[in-house]
Amino acid sequence: METQTILTAKHPATWAFSRRLNQASQLPISQKFPSLISKTCIKCKRDEIRSNVPSKKMFILGLGYVSQFFAQELKNQGWDISGTCTSITKKKELEEKGFDTHVFDACHPEWKILDILSCYTHLLVSVPPIENVGDPVLQHQDHLRSRLLRGNLQWLCYLSSTSVYGDSKGAWVDEDFSPQPSKNVGKMRLSAEEGWLKLGHDLGISPYVFRLGGIYGPGRSAIDTLLKKRHLSDSQKRRGSRNFTSRVHVADICQALKASISADLHSEIYNVVDDDPAPRAEVFEFAQQLVNKRWPGLVTTNKSSIERTDPIGEEKRVLNARMKNELGVKLVHPSYRSGLQSIIHHMPDPVSL
Ligand SMILES: NC(=O)c1ccc[n+]([C@@H]2O[C@H](COP(=O)([O-])OP(=O)(O)OC[C@H]3O[C@@H](n4cnc5c(N)ncnc54)[C@H](OP(=O)(O)O)[C@@H]3O)[C@@H](O)[C@H]2O)c1
């Protein structure tokens, strides 16, 4: 990795909490606020006592791409998982995949969905902010706080984005770099992070914020884009003109999430990215080579995907040392190269796609 100045400054919202011990999370909310245990939660407790095993119950707000992979891994380990999506159609699809799913649109919420949260020990939030609204779930933070206070929440993680950093003119940034997003999307993310961190602190736990790079994995990669001969959206083209784009394979996000569940001593904010921030054009060139090698002649060069243009916008390279050092994550895919090789290796013949 090229040596560069690392820009650091304390994040104003997390100064007081950086690297604090996770002692608060060791005590269940029900022990700290015994009078607040709800009837529903008493039932959960009874079930727990009967089985004599501490519950491992994960609720996922937004069973999207990443959280479905994560949910499947936890399910395989015996976790009790439930989650949400915004439509009946999606609910049916998720139920066919074996996920217990509730329809929940935070812009038109069904309160009873938030009510059941008090039965869960773990909460993953994967719902992105919305233009002119901000974080749609945090609109209901008072209701959410009161429900969670009646429960037994031990772990909370908000999936954020490296877009919070804004522009560092290509310098490496770590989690102590003071975020300065210039675009609305980054500003909304930063505000959502602050909201979820505050909610966690109000609940007496030490929450996590994971700042994810561009997510890729099976079914969502440069290879898939080439094979489906998709045209890039304007925002993808703008991102494509950057010199550096941080990425992360979904398997490594799942690793980091699982490591955070068992971590005793931890920070609150982690960059979850690979070691190799690279221009989108370079990634597409590599994907094209892989496709040409495996299925010669199937895809002709998709110029709209791999064209290099003048760099514009926010340039930064995001460091992942904290994730490795504190959570012990050893990246399965340190670079897009191994990530894409693995994707094409496991891919069925594209004729059947
Ligand atoms: N894509 C990237 O490269 C990238 C990079 C960094 C960070 N992130 C962020 O990381 C998180 C996980 O990414 P992902 O790609 O796995 O996300 P995703 O597949 O887009 O999933 C987002 C989930 O949020 C739900 N949702 C959206 N609007 C909602 C609303 N108003 N009320 C309730 N639920 C709502 C969606 O429901 P439906 O399934 O019903 O639509 C979906 O389940 C997201 O917040 C994403 O924005 C993404």
Provide the CATH architecture.
3-Layer(aba) Sandwich
Number of β-strand runs: 12
Write out the CATH superfamily name.
NAD(P)-binding Rossmann-like Domain
Largest sheet: 7 strands, parallel
Q: What is the percentage of strand-forming residues?
A: 5-15%
Fraction in helix: 25-40%
Folded structure, characterized:
There is one protein chain. The chain has 353 residues and is of the alpha/beta class. The protein has a single domain (6-216, 247-277, 320-335), classed as NAD(P)-binding Rossmann-like Domain (Rossmann fold). The protein is built from 14 helices and twelve strands. The strands form three sheets. It has a seven-stranded parallel sheet, with helices on both faces. Strand 3, helix 4 and strand 4 form a beta-alpha-beta unit. Helix 3 (65-76) crosses helix 10 (250-262) and helix 11 (280-294) runs parallel beside helix 14. The longest helix is centred in the middle third of the chain and has 19 residues, at 184-202. The radius of gyration is 21 Å and the shape is globular. It starts with 5 loop residues before the first strand and ends in an 8-residue tail after the last helix. The model is unreliable at 1-42 (pLDDT under 50). Bound molecules: NADP nicotinamide-adenine-dinucleotide phosphate (NAP). NADP nicotinamide-adenine-dinucleotide phosphate (NAP) is lined by residues 62-67, 84-87, 90, 104-107, 126-128, 136, 159, 161, 212, 214-215. NADP nicotinamide-adenine-dinucleotide phosphate binds next to helix 3, strand 3, strand 6 and strand 9.
